[in-house]
Amino acid sequence: MARPPPLQELPPGYTPPARAASPQILAGSLKAPLWLRAYFQGLLFSLGCGIQRHCGKVLFLGLLAFGALALGLRVAIIETDLEQLWVEVGSRVSQELHYTKEKLGDEAAYTSQMLIQTPLQEGENILTPEALGLHLQAALTASKVQVSLYGKSWDLNKICYKSGIPLIENGMIERMIEKLFPCVILTPLDCFWEGAKLQGGSAYLPGRPDIQWTNLDPEQLLEELGPFASLEGFRELLDKAQVGQAYVGRPCLHPDDLHCPPSAPNHHGKQAPNVAQELSGGCHGFSHKFMHWQEELLLGGISRDPRGQLLRAEALQSTFLLMSPRQLYEHFRGDYQTHDIGWSEERAGTVLQAWQRRFVQLAQEALPQNSSQQIHAFSSTTLDDILHAFSEVSAARVAGGYLLMLAYACVTMLRWDCAQSQGAVGLAGVLLVALAVASGLGLCALLGIAFNAATTQVLPFLALGIGVDDIFLLAHAFTEAPPGTPLQERTGECLQRTGTSVALTSINHMVAFFMAALVPIPALRAFSLQAAIVVGCNFAAVMLVFPAVLSLDLRRRHCQRLDVLCCFSRPCSARVIQILPRELGDGTGPVGIAHLTATVQAFAHCEASSPHVVTILPPRARLVPPPSDPLDSELFSPGGSTRDLLSQEEGTRQKATCSSLPCARWSLAHFARYQFAPWLLQAHSKAMVLVLFGALLGLSLYGATLVQDGLALTDVVPRGTKEHAFLSAQLRYFSLYEVALVTQGGFDYAHSQRALFDLHQRFSSLKAVLPPPATQAPRTWLHYYRNWLQGIQAAFDQDWASGRISHHSCRNGSEDGALAYKLLIQTGDAQEPLDFSQLTTRKLVDKEGLIPPELFYVGLTMWVSSDPLGLAASQANFYPPPPEWLHDKYDTTGENLRIPAAQPLEFAQFPFLLHGLQKTADFVEAIEGARAACAEAGRAGVRAYPTGSPFLFWEQYLGLRRYFLLAICILLVCTFLVCALLLLNPWTAGLIVLVLAMMTVELFGIMGFLGIKLSAIPVVILVASVGIGVEFTVHVALGFLTTQGSRNLRAACALECTFAPVTDGAVSTLLGLLMLAGSNFDFIIRYFFVVLTVLTLLGLLHGLVLLPVLLSLLGPPPEVVQMYKESPEVLSPPAPQEGGLRWGLSPTLPQSFARVTTSVTVALHPPPLPGAYIHPASDEPPWSPVATPAASAPSSLSSRGPCPATG
């Protein structure tokens, strides 16, 4: 074997012989993973080279495709319907809601407008005539609202909900009743005469002033009209409803009022009423029987004495009920007032919305500025407006966020050295991500996925932060290309080294968001699917289009043009770099200045058992001593780049040079290599890291126990607004919810009356159900129906006993007696429908309180037609609705006697009020109790389900945590499989999943300490945190996996090459989220900005602190092992020839050093690109950094980079 000359003088043209060294020996068990990764990265290399060859075409076609998809935003639909957003897809609530809409339609029976009055001084008693007077002032101002639309004036009396208007055959009386019939207004003012002032109806009769509720005495009016019309049936109707004198028989709140009627109890004494006593037990509308407003509906913050008597209250509430748009449309359809305005349901909705907005505005401004009370107003339109505002895209915030990201990307990628600066690449990358986000959202719109508040408020910023991470990774890897990479292969080399990481993170992001779609809430499912699609578009843009941008920038750098201002050349591109020689160890060396214009030849000696390196340069260069090694020389690789070999003499001042400032040479990679990694990988630092993260995990486990379920509307509405003040007052004082117990079809109502009564009893006994007053019968249709039958049976018995009704006639009997007569003779047989012999042999209600099944549906038709007030109060909402039937006791023909039976019921409901529901646990308890009652009824043959806002929006919490755990577990398993598949190392994948699980637990615990409640939104973020966390962990893990040496060395090398892109990615994510902090909605700040910011910081800490420590302790063995077979001898070069340059060398070298000789040629005209082109100066293959244990083995078997593969 030929031996090289002694190492004394090395002529410039010396070519060392080939080394008899085995460059790489693969561990046998790892051949398959390396081969598979090499094959995959070979595909990425080919892709990158192809993109670089056709970069212009790829860029044009990519922008064209993404731009075309972005046009899909024109058909985007923003969903603001709460039911469509929050009702669990495919759940029993969804099925029940569908059943309800199928039978009754889409709209509720009425909409509510509310006024809440509270004292400015918290805790002050509000039950005073003065406070009630202010409440009257605000309510009266609101009730007088008028809006002009379509050339018509619309006031409360035209659009309010009126319950149970009776049908009267007398046309004059019917028109008068229609004008006078009161609106349904639940107000504490109804305990006083002043409640009549809120009713705006009026009627005119000759010879007397306008009839209004402030002066209407129904009993007196019927007496006056008696001689002119037969009103006996109407009189009985009013008597049954217990109308009495209506409002004129109630005390006046201000007896000094000139209009206070003489019939008021305190009119003559002029004594102010005892407000607490009058309000005790609640108030009544114009009907004492059917319109009872319980205390809990009117008063909040109630205090009682030991005997249970009302003493004081802290809040008052009035509720105005309006018709639904469909009801308003039907009411005025064909009316002379609307025949010329193109009346439609849409216009009816516009009228209602305009009136509601004006109602809220005037009510809030009704009280003087110096008032001791405050009014909070709210309407259903107010809630819709909040949701629309919540869903609007803030163009200013979106533009600000993207401009901030543009500035950051440009500044962080700018360099003093034009050849390394990438400011324009940063700008183009951010703009490309913005286009990818727009195209992803456009694709979602084309796929029919509706947008919502989460999409418009959060996703543009979250997607920006996530997408820019990969931009930084590729740009960083592109500048750190391995020495000797041909120009035409630079993009391929970049994708080969980073493509795996980009694919891993993007795939895990998509998997995470797809797993988050398991949460069956439509709003969050849509958000998760949209996020997954947007991440997919980002992935395509980063892997296909952004490399084309890098390729174009490479041409700019090769032509030595300025960054950003690429039309200009850099000023120092044609200068010659001068290198001042420097004396070495023995004081001998060349004297004078030599111009290095062609090549620099370097020879390195390295030891096979340690990473010490001595680099020997020809006389025209100087030796740069290696830095001090904080970890016993284990963390530093000799295979840096030629900038580690060449240095400008500080004393040279004769000619201008292109030297950079010292501060410009500092970088995150420099910090990671020389400060962070040496400190982190010390034994005491590892112990401290493990203790601190263990303590954080323990605290987070405790914090997880503090997390409560729930999402109140006050969390969504911006704080400091009038809407938030109303919702806060309502939640504190009036936590009441209207619900209903729906009975379906599929069973026989007539034969299941006992089961229906039992169901009602079980439901009424629930803790959350507000019980009716002891003096009032249950407010359900079955009770009202039965009581009505018992009433007409009693009237019939009395008329029969007195002889006014006989087998053949009921003309002389009372109206109720005649109704009972007609019902008793019904047989239900189509052939023989009447049987007069049953008049004395049957009862309408038997001794057990049940209605005879054969009379059930016939009697239902009669009750619905004859007792409209009772039907309206019951809120039965029968489907199919019973047929109309008009009663005339004087008509005893066969047709009038035959009463059509109602069809078997498929829908009916019992109304209830739930109270005391403050926390989510209260709602869950009420829901579980209601479901248990329905299940018990189901075993008795009655099909029923509860409905109402608590069941629509809170039932999700019954299984929310189960869905959360299921999604997290599935996602962690999927993440493990994806990482194991692409990394081809299950042990590394397991460590990644362990860190991700810790991040999720810690984020959940921090939510508990921050007071953030668990709802579907945090669940989606927690599930997505697994995918987002991969961004911070997989790069480090992959860098560790593909390097050589000890675990400490590999962890340090991985940190050096991934610290900068991971940190830049985290900062870019935080910048993307920063715009969320400027949202007007506290909900966005708390539930998205705070949570996602904490997640990003946790990811940064776990990825760059905890994971390297775990890898240094538990990491897998290296995939590539470097071994040397050359005899470790120190060779001495021959004596120099005369006139030759002498190269000084230390007198002795360690005998264990083995020789590695290489020739490096650096082109200096023009100055080199980053990772300068290096060509071998001899027939010997160029020396690769993997020839030392400290060198990094790239992820491909032939890669030439000095850093570990980041992808």
What's this entry about, in short?
With about 1200 residues, the chain is of the alpha+beta class.
Descriptive account of the structure:
The protein is α+β, with helices and mostly antiparallel strands. Among the domains are: 181 residues, Multidrug efflux transporter AcrB transmembrane fold, CATH 1.20.1640.10; 279 residues, no CATH class; 203 residues, Up-down Bundle (Multidrug efflux transporter AcrB transmembrane fold); 124 residues, no CATH class. Helix content is 47%, strand content 8%. The N terminus and C terminus are likely disordered.
Topology:
Layout: E1 25-26, H1 31-53, H2 55-70, H3 82-86, H4 92-104, E2 110-119, H5 129-143, E3 146-149, E4 152-155, H6 156-159, H7 171-180, E5 185-186, E6 202-203, E7 211-212, H8 218-225, H9 232-241, H10 275-279, E8 283-284, E9 292-293, H11 295-298, E10 299-300, E11 303-304, E12 310-312, E13 315-323, H12 325-332, H13 345-364, E14 373-379, H14 380-391, H15 395-413, H16 423-446, H17 453-457, H18 459-479, H19 490-516, H20 522-558, E15 578-579, E16 594-595, E17 603-607, E18 613-616, H21 668-680, H22 683-704, H23 713-716, H24 722-733, E19 737-744, H25 753-764, H26 781-802, H27 815-824, H28 853-866, H29 868-874, H30 894-897, E20 907-914, H31 920-939, E21 944-948, H32 949-953, H33 960-983, H34 986-1010, H35 1016-1041, H36 1047-1074, H37 1082-1114, E22 1120-1121, E23 1153-1156
Antiparallel strand pairs: 1-22, 2-13, 2-14, 3-4, 5-13, 6-7, 8-9, 10-13, 11-12, 15-16, 17-18, 17-23, 19-20, 19-21
